[in-house]
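Quick check before the chapter quiz. The format below is the same one you will see on the exam, so make sure you can read both the input and the output lines.
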Amino acid sequence: MSETQNAEILAELDAARRVAGVAAGHGEVVREFTADGSECRIVYSRLAEGEAEEVIRTEQALAREGGYTLE
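Here is the expected output.
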């Protein structure tokens, strides 16, 4: 498989994940929750350099406050 084909497949996967989840409103983070809301996965993110630590802290705090586990 060529590098171009790999990039196309990854772009399609990213697009599908963005559509399937819920936008967090920061750092282009998209979350997906279980049906009962007890678990959350970040299924997509696109962060600027230096944003990761703050986004992670924010997501961890939201999980604690919301009473769900964060993957």
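If your answer matched, good. The longest strand covers residues 39-44.
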